[in-house]
Specification:
The protein is of the alpha+beta class. It contains 1 helix and 4 strands. It has a 4-stranded antiparallel β-sheet, covered by helices on one side. The longest helix is centred in the first third of the chain and has 10 residues, at about 15-25. The chain starts with 13 loop residues before the first helix and ends with a strand.
Length: about 70
């Protein structure tokens, strides 16, 4: 479970947790999670302060997607 006043409490589970921890968890470029894992076409996703972790169900892989700086 990760918590901050700005993001509230959110957990990471399974492959999402493993990938997030390997990146450095809350100290990573992604920052803290802002949602729980949710389903989307072709897999699932979890949003973070500065991007997403995306699970591709057919490939069984997790990819990191950072938000572009604007």
């Amino acid at each position: 479970m990760f918590y901050s006043v700005a993001t509230g409490p959110h957990s990471t589970v399974g492959m999402f947790r493993s990938q997030y921890r390997s990146l450095g968890a809350e100290r990573s470029r992604l920052g803290l999670p802002t949602t729980e894992v949710y389903k989307m076409t072709g897999g699932s996703r979890q949003r973070y302060q500065h991007g997403w972790l995306n699970y591709n169900q057919s490939r069984r892989t997790i990819t990191v997607q950072y938000r572009s700086a604007t």
